[in-house]
Specification:
Elements (H helix, E strand, L loop, with lengths): L1 E7 L5 H15 L5 E8 L2 H13 L5 H19 L2 H28 L2
Helix pairs in contact: 1-3, 2-3, 2-4, 3-4
């Protein structure tokens, strides 16, 4: 079994994600077996940490950081997925972002 991990910069934009997909297609084709692990989009882990710290301090800047993360993920979906298939992907992304927003609001209220 082959395990490949692509992180940060290599999945930072729609164009870079397309390059990862091409690498996988070239290496494994349709019949190859591999486990592929993708890290957070480039810069998102640092933004999550900053957002969490800002919320725990009561700094409303956490909202701007959240909005940036949201825009980044929605932009990736729109750049990679054909319009006729975007609804399901955008719904899933938005649901996941809503869960993140709930966690961040928790940080704000308990100051942790």
């Amino acid at each position: 079994m082959v395990i490949l991990k692509f992180g940060g910069t290599s999945v930072g934009t729609g164009e870079r994600i397309e390059k990862v997909a091409l690498i996988l297609k070239q290496r494994f084709g349709k019949t190859g077996k591999a486990v592929v692990v993708l890290s957070a989009l480039g810069g998102v882990t640092d933004e999550l940490i900053k957002m969490s710290k800002a919320a725990s301090r009561g700094d409303n800047n956490y909202k701007n950081l959240f909005n940036h993360i949201e825009e980044k993920h929605i932009g990736i979906v729109k750049s990679l997925i054909p319009v006729k298939h975007q609804t399901a992907a955008l719904s899933w992304v938005k649901l996941t972002l809503n869960e993140l927003e709930d966690v961040i609001h928790g940080n704000l209220h308990v100051k942790e």
